[in-house]
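Hi V.,

Quick status before I head out on leave. The structure for the redesign project is tokenized and pasted below; the design run finished overnight.
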């Protein structure tokens, strides 16, 4: 049983999430109280280390929001540490082919299905309190792979068909960069690629996810077949709101107070 995958199979589409990049357990807890279905703790583009991750998982654990952990890389040691810290759903960046997807899945599984190292007193096992942890843990892990390049899109069917790959996520900004469009996720070519990605994932029976720039875009992605959509990040929501309020304040201060 995996809470994130249970959400994706619930029938309500798309489920809504956000990214957590601040490395702050307090902000993670606050975001978790806002009503998001899930939140991606971003270990790729933030200063989050293993202890930060453990604290943020503890913070989200007090809220209804389900954590997903984006790894810094498809690295067996990093995966082991994240799982032992209590992560149960991992997002692997920059997966290019089926072999890399297989390596990601194997890193999340105890033998004989995989190569995850065994530790009896980790947070994942409730410090030894979970009965038969080593026998049951594999069935509780969710694996999401991230597609970021045209080459990965070309091999989408092979990647999605790897046993243990539960869902796929496409990053519009990274994809735009690999297409030579450098950050222009709204470019028509990128948007066509996203819609084709969702169509193909649905044909394979695998949930597709992405990142939206606005609530309206998130609704459009849901109509295109995406099952889970992130809206911004904790830092983006904070700085965007701060800049917006400050701009309104300064705009008001610049207006004449009246005529004389």
């Amino acid at each position: 049983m995996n809470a994130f995958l249970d959400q994706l199979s619930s029938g309500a589409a798309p489920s809504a999430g956000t990214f957590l990049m601040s490395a702050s357990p307090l902000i993670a807890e606050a975001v978790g109280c806002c009503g998001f279905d899930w939140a991606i703790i971003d270990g790729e583009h933030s200063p989050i280390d293993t202890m930060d991750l453990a604290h943020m998982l503890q913070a989200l654990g007090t809220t209804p929001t389900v954590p997903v952990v984006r790894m810094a890389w498809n690295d067996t040691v990093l995966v082991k540490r994240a799982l032992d810290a209590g992560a149960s759903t991992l997002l692997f960046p920059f997966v290019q082919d089926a072999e890399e997807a297989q390596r990601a899945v194997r890193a999340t599984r105890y033998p004989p299905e995989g190569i995850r190292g065994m530790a009896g007193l980790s947070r994942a096992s409730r410090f030894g309190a979970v009965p038969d942890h080593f026998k049951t843990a594999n069935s509780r892990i969710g694996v999401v792979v991230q597609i970021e390049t045209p080459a990965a899109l070309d091999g989408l069917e092979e990647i999605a068909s790897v046993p243990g790959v539960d869902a796929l996520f496409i990053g519009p900004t990274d994809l735009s960069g690999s297409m030579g469009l450098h950050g222009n996720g709204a470019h028509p070519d990128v948007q066509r690629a996203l819609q084709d990605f969702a169509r193909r994932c649905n044909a394979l029976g695998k949930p597709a996810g992405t990142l939206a720039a606005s609530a309206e875009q998130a609704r459009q992605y849901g109509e295109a077949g995406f099952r889970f959509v992130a809206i911004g990040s904790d830092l983006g929501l904070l700085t965007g709101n701060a800049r917006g309020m400050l701009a309104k304040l300064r705009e008001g201060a610049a207006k004449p107070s009246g005529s004389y």
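Above is the designed sequence. Residues 147 and 170 are 5 Å apart (CA to CA).

G. will cover questions while I'm gone.

Best,
W.
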